[in-house]
Amino acid sequence: MVIGIIGAMDEEVEILLNNIEKNKKQVKAGMQFNVGELWGKEVVVVRSGIGKVNAAICTQILIDDYKVDRIINVGVAGGIGKNIYPGDVIVADSLVQHDVDTSVFGDRFGQIPRLETFDFKCDEELIKLAMDACKAFKNYNSFVGRIVSGDQFIADIDKITWLKSEFDAVGCEMEGGSIAQVCYLNKTPFVVIRSISDNASNGAHIDYEKFIPIGVKNSTNILKSMLKAM
Ligand code: ADE
């Protein structure tokens, strides 16, 4: 089994690239695809770049050119809700693109027009593996729930209040929903695992810079335990 691992930013794949063995690199669409072994599993690790378009291109290349059987997206997210703090982990069970808006036609916000699904569901087995991995992490809480994605860095209390009420989301980021859509269209099982870097509220960009390292460390640790258990 070959597992595609996507992180949006250098920081999010750095630990993975420091640990990958027999690394063969290839550049496509400006993205470096690292084929090798990571913690005993055959993987392709890639930094997609930020945002939904980058992430979608990257996912389709992993599926078409590297024939990956599973895709795991790791990295950081803004936490939504009072009880979620930097370093906590979200295992997504479904994803929605919160910036899709054809409401003028009567569609719900987030609905991709003329697609038969509203949300994109993560693979049950991968969710379970991630949740089992979370159990070993005593210092942080973990949540299973919906992550919403859009081409926006959220730093606004009114916006997160809306994301919570409209989508019942526990986290927001900028790639997961498009990775999920590409995986859905290609019938490729996937999961998104994100650790909290900020509370997506006013001043989030300042917390974000500060807490990226702990977020990356925690989501990478979950991935490591998962790969070992697979
Ligand atoms: N990734 C991490 N924090 C985020 C936020 N507040 N908005 C969007 N993406 C994020």
From TrEMBL:
Q: In which pathway does it act?
A: Amino-acid biosynthesis; L-methionine biosynthesis via salvage pathway; S-methyl-5-thio-alpha-D-ribose 1-phosphate from S-methyl-5'-thioadenosine (hydrolase route): step 1/2
Top class in the EC scheme: hydrolase
Molecular function as annotated in GO: adenosylhomocysteine nucleosidase activity
Query: EC number(s) for this protein?
Result: 3.2.2.9
Q: Which UniProt keywords apply?
A: Amino-acid biosynthesis, Glycosidase, Hydrolase, Methionine biosynthesis
According to UniProt, the name of this protein is adenosylhomocysteine nucleosidase
The record places domain Nucleoside phosphorylase at 3-228
